[in-house]
Amino acid sequence: MQIADHSLTARQHLMVTLCAGLAIVPHALHVPLPISLFLIVLFVWRLVALRYPQFQPGRWLLVVATLGGVILTFSQYHTLIGRDAGVGLLTVMMMLKILEVRKRQDLYVAVFISYFVIITHFLFDQSMMMALYLLSVMVCLTALLIEINRIKPSATTLDPFVRTAIITLQAIPIAIVLFVIFPRLNQPLWNLGIGSSGTTGLSDRVTPGQIAELIESPEVAFRVSFDREVPPVEQRYWRGLVIWDTDGLSWFNRKEQVVERHIQLKAHGEHSYEVFLEAHQKRWLYALDLPVSSKQNFRLSQDLILQRREPVRQSLTYQVRSTTEQQNRVVLPGMLQRALELPDNVTQRQFELVEGWRRSATTSREIVDLALAHFNNQPFVYTLTPPRYLDNPIDQFLFDTQEGFCEHYATSFAQLMRIAGIPTRLVLGYQGGEFNELGDYYIIRQYDAHAWTEVWLEESGWLRVDPTAAVAPERIRFQLRNDFGAEGSPAMFQLDELGMVGSSLRRFAHMLDNANIQWRRWIIGYSREHQFSMMRNFGFDRLTPLQWSLITIGLIAIPLLLVALRLVLSGRKQPLAEIVAYNQYCKKLARLGISRKTYEGPMDYAKRAIAERPDLTAPISRITALYIKLRYGPDADKSQLKKLLQQVRQFRPGRQKPGA
Predict the structure, then answer these.
(1) What is the pTM of this model?
(2) Catalytic residue positions?
């Protein structure tokens, strides 16, 4: 029977508006503020129009609002093409469509656009929490479609959501089969040519005070899971980048590092581990000092830095073997000379300080020890809020304020060693890490960023020297507290327990982080390599492509056949009692020559029957009214069904006498 009334109820208007708002909300983190404000205005306008219909915009006002949305989007992105601009324009157009929803066809379009908007969120965020949120929005949208297509209105608000849950559970087996066995690409589909915006982390240019700014960010830089033995915290230096050159204000690399593929180290005490690296937009990777090999065959630079050909724009997982008991004597022509270059702003008092060490020492190792003792004995302060050094940062730090963060100590130590004739280079990375006992891995956050040095000694090669440890050894053993205090105040460390509440909160945070990393490992990171490994475990790698295709089709067909069988069996159920009674009533009228046509509804059939037999008006009207109320009404009860059955039994019309 064709539905003539295409209007929507107030509840349906409100549901589609709220669902659209929920679908757009996460994009507030990605679109510019003016577009977010524009979306909020449209959303509030829609809610007001639902309460006061006189505020419903007309056609021309919607045209003006649409042009305004397009112009606004273009003004923010200077284009309408691409991921960011395309998503921004899509959200604006979707909310404008919600503003004009009046009939069912408008609602269908709005819901399908909302489904598409949900997919676009994975271009920015593939976390487990985002997936769960978007799943809940999808359930709401599907429940709305079920509600709008029901013959009878839902008895309760939860009924369409229950139906949606059943449909979702039926689809899960097919989804799992497709996810596991469908041919995989080299990387997740949403990674193809799509960048990621996130915390950049360490930069390839160091200015005193720059690393200290990272302590304000608790975001995760990477996570590490060790296969067996874990090195002590004093040896957990995560090597990221080596910097050679300085102009007296900043440290940087004037030229690209030479990449060697077959650097050999004398490795002792190797550690094997897996790194889950967040996007940081750089080509270098982080590894425990010093990387020996990687399963991914990444390039290894002359200063033992793992590198990729492309920047890390998406989260990345890789396996590495490293050694902490190093004998690193890798040196190429020109490296040692480069590690002795000095800037033009070296002062006389720096030369005098170093000259005093040289007179007291007989070896380069003794000069290093004297420099560390100087940092330890003088009133240096390790602080999270160092003063700004403008003209000559190293000289002002060493002799005037003596207040600084790790990069102040590392850069000043490196320059002093170069003055002493000891080749020295700066190393950037992270130190330490927070152990997640639930997932058995370490979390290295942005506030674990650190800088140290490596000096060249003839007897041992490149040797790691961390002058920060000479001033504040707690920095190496304990976690920093974000208690900044006044400028120059000493840094605070987390030396004691967090208490019951703090421990519970941290345990809960670890639980969420562990769930997220498992999601990343098994869902987001499920690659073609993982698929082939699983196939080998089950012996499927010996199958031909044709055999594998047939197995895939069969595994997909099984749940589909089960669903089809269920639909067939459900179609064979006994019809409702009111339908059986009404069919008996129709048969009685058919004996009088008044057969019901296939296209006739109960009302039309009743009108034609009454027109042919006016004497049966009363029973026909009563039976038709009861049937419609039972079949299509929301508030039918058993007493009305009994009345219908009684009326049909008592309906015994005789043939009309000629002339009557």
Answers:
(1) 0.70
(2) 406, 450, 466
